[in-house]
# Entry
Amino acid sequence: MNLILLQPGDLLDEHSARITDPRRLKHLHEVHQAQPGDELTLGLADGNIGRGRLTALDRHQACFALDALSQAPPPALDIELVLALPRPRMLARSLEHVTALGVKHITLLHSRRVEKSYWQSPELDPEKIRRHLLLGLEQARDTRTPRVILEPRFKPFLEDRLPARLANREGLLAHPGMDAACPRGLASPALLIVGPEGGFVPYEVEQLLAAGCRGIQLGERILRVETAVVALLARLSPL
Amino acid sequence: MNLILLQPGDLLDEHSARITDPRRLKHLHEVHQAQPGDELTLGLADGNIGRGRLTALDRHQACFALDALSQAPPPALDIELVLALPRPRMLARSLEHVTALGVKHITLLHSRRVEKSYWQSPELDPEKIRRHLLLGLEQARDTRTPRVILEPRFKPFLEDRLPARLANREGLLAHPGMDAACPRGLASPALLIVGPEGGFVPYEVEQLLAAGCRGIQLGERILRVETAVVALLARLSPL
# Structure
């Protein structure tokens, strides 16, 4: 937790805030070993970041006096991510990784090799998803929560939503064996599509290419989804 | 397990092999749902990869008839990694990530902000480390096990070992706030040094720069160690 991300309900007034949730209190006590008087980095959800002073801390609450929160959060990555729904534990970690890297638009997509049971996982509960997004933001000192969209059917996504999503950004389909090496440092907005463990099936690859996506690959090595998304985003990122 | 990595003891003769360890048998049964007759990808430790046919499978053993293992493993990444020892769970995952990405030389280093207790972790047991390296190799269809060196004292590493390590490769110190952005697609061998959660302390940074390392950074975002190593390696990789 490199940033204490204040939600509107945490603000008492313009210059003070109080948090009461056990997770963050525990972190302040045990990891930060914070004491009243300590200066910490705070941010306002979807707003700026700055410094604040811990004025009180006990088992039930932490209170802060806020300086002007005048610093903009770090720049977002203008790469939207479409990820075939990974197995639940991998999903959790992937959400944290890509949020920390600055992705602001995440679509979780069904595809042939996604196990149907994954769509029933408690990890898809909006509150659970939100928790992983917050962990990614707190890690990277960011304040802007990504939007997460579930697409539990491949074809309606492909036919009804993808064309509009590609109107202003280049589609990149990361898939082993594609012709082009993953580009470095993109100069314009992109939508990155990453398949499931085992990859998209040939029909899905054909359809995504036919929809205008460019096929890219990272070489012979087969990577786990969570390794691959970080490697792809780091390589594509212009930041 | 995208590759069954045969150790010398698994070979019965030039054309047949048998594995008996519970981990891989379980994977063959439960994940691959393999049946005798199936063709699978196999590799010989530190050797080539190729195809083999499963000739027998039960609870105690899996037997394979091997074709000529004639394909070279994927190219290694000529970037040595020096990583401040992460907390145990992060260490396990980081070893798998970087092995899958093709790193062949990993040094785990002490630094001021590494908790002393981490050096007592059972995760540092050579057999445990080896297990994570094997998982990374099996994932990426690689056969060459990375070398892992423990450096539980910073100063002897800095003074006695680092100069020789930098004789033929450029040292890159990844640290927030350094002048240069992380380069893309290195043309020559490198040694990448990554600090602990919280970073190297200023004295350590000074000493590493004085030893000839170049300071690089990935931007304002503070990343978890396992995210940062993958992002850095993906960006530096010429492959």
